[in-house]
């Protein structure tokens, strides 16, 4: 039983001299729709930050963490024994 997929069929590269494009409009049209990518990246980053903040809130509300933070603050202010 084979565990790999067959190799994709690849066309041979062009041979001989390739003329440069005189009209760059096709290239510009190809790259133009990329304008919304930045917005999508910001949205994903914002969702990740919100998820991390929610996790941080859950951790900080736990009793052992509250005691640890209270102890550090008390020691820093000289209120501890």
UniProtKB/TrEMBL annotation:
InterPro entries from the UniProt entry: DUF4244 (IPR025338)
What transmembrane ranges does the database entry give?
Answer: 42-60
Where does the source fall among the domains of life? Bacteria
Looking up Pfam families in the UniProt record yields: DUF4244
UniProt keyword list: Membrane, Transmembrane, Transmembrane helix
Q: Give the residue ranges for region: Disordered.
A: 1-22
Q: Per its record, how is this protein called by name?
A: DUF4244 domain-containing protein
